[in-house]
Each structure stands twice: as C-alpha cells, then as structure tokens.
Structure to design on (307 residues):
C-alpha cells in the first residue's frame, strides 16, 4: 500500500490540503514537522486546530516536551512503525511536512551516527555560521559541497560527527535506504509574490493569536540554548525582544525575513526530490486536494474516495 508524501514551503497551505485529502481518502496524517512534535509551540508552528486534530487522526504532533531532543533518524523509525499500524487498521497513511531532513529520511534514509553531544554543541553556539562552514570545508570538503553554507543545523552535526568519531561525516554516508513502502511524493508550490504575501499574513496571524505570550512562557522556562524551540523561527526573534536586544518592530521584521528565507531553502531542497509538483497559486484547498488525490490514485494508490 503506497504512502502519500505531501511537502512544500512554509505557508503553501499543506495543512488545509492534507485535511481535505485525509477526509476523502480515509487517511491518517503523520507530521513531518521537526517543531510541531513539541508541546508548547502550537502557535509558532501554526499547528492544526483542535477541531482538525479531532476530525482527522494525527501522529507526531505535540508529543514531546520542548526539553527533549528528536531528530530525523528517530522520525524515520517512528514513521515506519506508525505506517505499519495505520495500514493494519485498513487505513491510508499521509505524511505531511516541510522539514527537509525528515523528508530525506524517508526518500533516502539516514546513517546512524553518534548521538548528539550537548557540551560540544555549546562550544559552537557563539561562533558565526561562516566560521563553522569554513571549518567544515577544512575537515570534510565533500560534506561542505552538499551542505548549504547557511544550513547551521547540518554544519554543526557534521562537525560534531567529526569531533566524536574522528571521521568525516561524508565517509559515513552509506547506500540509500528508502522507506519500505512505495512513496508517492507531491510538492505544493506557488509564485513567489503570493508565497511572500501568505508568509506575511501568517506571521501577523500568529502574533495576533498570542505568539509573544507563547514565546514568553518558553523563555521563562529557561530552556538550554541548544534546544529546538530556542532556535526556531519566531521564538528566537522574540527571545531577543524579551532580552531587550531589539524592539518589537525589528522582531516582527526579522520573523518575516527569516521565514521567507526558510521557505526559499525548502523549495530549493525539495526541487532535488522526485515529486509531482502542483501550483497552488490562487486555488482553494479543496481544488488542490482533488488534484493530489488524482496523483495518488494514478500512482497506484488504489484509493476509494469518500465524501
């Protein structure tokens, strides 16, 4: 039984489309969002509403404390278990998200490297990204070619692996190990102007819903600097505002700019994957969902559509 993988940049409308697809196909949704897995980040990750979560079964949403760690390798293991359980129930599985490494964990697989070393990562916290990338170019030029200069998470991981094992991370990259079931990949895209308008509206909506209060609660909890929430767009800018380093207007502008930059990186990354692309510009979610379902069916989904 095939699994639908629905990806796209932030603000492309993945949540609304996935809910329509899940309802019509009798599917359960597995989140491939590296931040939505944590509790306390509901507004900043634009998590589906409580009504949506009740209407369609969701997995890997709000299941971890923000002090816990979670990575793409664990996501791959969890996803395999969840898909097996969903299929055993006679239902379809729909993986939805924009976290690029989580997607790659399904399409290609990830090597099992050493666990994260918090102390080592702390030593890198204050170093500029350009310095870290320059170091990566020295110790592992092969990895530096494949990792974007602005991808701090992957750069830190590569340096960490080299520090802990004495071997460059590129030497540990093994053969591809795609997911054990057929994946039907669909990517949502839209013109740049509309994407930016959606991002700006999304940021304003989250701020109006109480993103600052949500960030304040996390900030007052004293999370360690290496925890995901501290590095997440929206929270990290508001933490700077709460520390008095920037004013409110600057915080808002930084959130919008960082989100736009992240969306561009997502699109660039997803373009490397084998996906059926659907332009969602000026289209309503139900219309897009019908096209997604058609792609899934034509790829051998064997779907029986509901109402």
């Amino acid at each position: 039984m095939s699994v639908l993988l629905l990806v796209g940049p932030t603000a492309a409308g993945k949540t609304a489309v996935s809910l329509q697809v899940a309802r019509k196909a009798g599917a359960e949704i597995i989140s491939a969002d590296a931040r939505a897995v944590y509790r306390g980040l509901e507004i900043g990750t634009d998590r589906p509403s409580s009504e949506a979560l009740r209407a369609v079964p969701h997995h890997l949403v709000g299941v971890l404390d923000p002090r816990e760690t979670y990575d793409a390798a664990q996501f791959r293991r969890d996803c395999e278990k969840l898909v097996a359980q969903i299929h055993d129930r006679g239902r379809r599985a729909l993986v939805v998200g924009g976290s690029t490494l989580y997607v790659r964990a399904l399409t290609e697989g990830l090597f099992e490297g050493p666990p994260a070393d918090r102390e080592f990562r702390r030593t890198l916290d204050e170093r500029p990204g350009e310095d870290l990338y320059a170091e990566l170019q020295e110790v592992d030029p092969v990895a530096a070619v494949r990792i974007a200069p602005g991808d701090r998470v992957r750069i830190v991981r590569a340096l960490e692996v080299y520090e802990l094992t004495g071997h460059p991370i590129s030497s540990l990259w093994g053969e591809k190990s795609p997911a054990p079931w057929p994946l039907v990949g669909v990517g949502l895209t839209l013109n740049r102007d509309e994407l930016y308008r959606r991002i700006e509206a999304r940021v304003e909506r989250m701020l109006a819903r109480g993103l600052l209060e949500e960030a304040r609660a996390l900030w007052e909890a004293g999370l360690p600097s290496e925890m995901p929430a501290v590095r997440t767009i929206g929270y990290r800018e508001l933490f700077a505002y709460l520390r008095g380093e920037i004013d409110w207007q600057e915080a808002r502008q930084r959130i919008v700019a960082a989100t736009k930059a992240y969306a561009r990186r997502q699109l660039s990354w997803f373009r490397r994957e084998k996906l059926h692309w659907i332009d969602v510009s000026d289209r309503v979610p139900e219309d897009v969902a019908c096209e997604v379902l058609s792609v899934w069916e034509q790829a051998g989904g064997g779907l029986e559509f509901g109402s």
